[in-house]
Structure formats: structure tokens, C-alpha cells
Amino acid sequence: MCRWLAYSGDEIFLEDLLFKPEHSLVEQSQHATEAKVATNGDGFGVGWYGQQEEPGLYREIMPAWNDCNLRHLARQIKSSHFFAHVRASTGTATSRANCHPFAYENWMGMHNGQVGGYEQLRRPLEAHISDCHYLNRMGTTDSEALFYMLFCLGLEENPVKAICRMVSTVETLQKEKEITAPFRCTMAITDGKRLFSLRHASDSYAPSLYWQKQEGRLVVVSEPLSVDRTGWNKVPESHVLISEGSEVLDIVSIQ
């Protein structure tokens, strides 16, 4: 399972979350404590909003802890809204195109988890991606497929409803194909202003997802960035955390 973080609030340097905390995301890339595997070394990526409407992306196939360019960039880039992701592959190739986050126009998304039986579901899932969005699908992961599916399911009009439809579509297809392996997922989606953070599983083992609000800052993470869990809140299973800036607007059920 991968590890990720989403930040929104006052402008900060990327290194303030990627490197500085005692259990920073880069630390989690080697020593994750709430994932199936402790090491997430199959590539990484960061996506941030700056002076342009579209996010900037930096994705690489080497482990996050072994890329000096990431450390240099994180020391220089400031943003009020950014994503970061360290990858543990669930079977697809280690390639730049398969590294998160994924971006389309002003939208950005990333994912942790797995669609059970994806080999059988890849083609029917991709049927829910419109032609114009499919042209931008460069990789082979279930994560990227889920991201582009959302646009066909109404992401730009109603993100929460689109997320609900995506989950329902995956689980309906699994039932039709008699796939018993679960769909487990945490996912972050943003339009550059609002953030939608999903935690869900078709069984009772949803991947971990936490959020913490401090003055002017909101962080959503796979694992807390500190050993002390004080102030960290779990996103409930089968819920979407909706936020804008540093404010949590709502936490809604998708069932």
C-alpha cells in the first residue's frame, strides 16, 4: 500500500511536511507503520499549485529517500495547496506514468489501495472514461483509471456524488464478475481549492487516513506525521472529508 499526504492552508515549503517531521512522508517511504509493507520505494510524486491554474508535477521512479532533486526542490517550492505520494506497487510497472499524483487541467488526484480483480476489470472500468480523458491516460494503474472515471461520473459538477458513483461502479462490476477480492481505497481529489478525501473499503479493512487542523493549516495523511497521535483524527470508513483552505467543511457518508 502507498502512503500520501494532502496539504491546504497557509503557504509553506514542501519540505516542512515531506522531510522535517519525525514521521515525515519520506520517512514513511522506508518505515511505514500502518501499511501492509513498511517500504514504499516504487517511485514518488509531488503536485503543487503555484502561479498557474494547473498544478506543477514532479514524479520519479526512484525511491523518495534516494532522490536529491526532491530534497532540493522541496526546500525551494512554497505552496498553499499540494499533494505528495510514495508508491508501493500492487502489480503494475514501476514507471513515471504510474506514479501519483495524476493531473488533468486544474484537477489533481492520488490514491492508495487496490481494486480487487483489476486484471479482469481494467477494460470495463476504462469504458467509463470518456475519449477526451482517455487520451491523457498514460499509465496502467487502477489508480489512474479511477481518477479519469470520475470526470465521466460528474466530478466537475458534484465531486462527492461522482466519488459515490465511482465506488458503486467498481463494486457492481466486481459482483458481476464474481470477484471476491475487496476494493480498498483512500483517495484525494482537488480542483486546486477544495479537497475531497475518501476512505473506503468493500470489506471492513479500509486503509488508514487521518486529518489534523492547526491554525491556518490542514493536513490529510495516510499516517500521522508524529509519533504522538494527539490532535490527529481518523476519517471514518466510507466517508469523504470535504475541506477548503484550512477549514473542514463536512465529513459525509458515501453509503
From TrEMBL:
Pfam families: GATase_4. Residues 2-255 form the Glutamine amidotransferase type-2 domain. Signal peptide: none annotated. The keyword Metal-binding does not apply. It comes from the Bacteria. This is Class II glutamine amidotransferase. The keyword Transferase does not apply. InterPro entries: EgtC-like, Gamma-glu_amide_hydrolase, GATase_2_dom, Ntn_hydrolases_N. PROSITE patterns: GATASE_TYPE_2. CDD domains: YafJ. It comes from Kiloniella laminariae. Keywords: Glutamine amidotransferase.
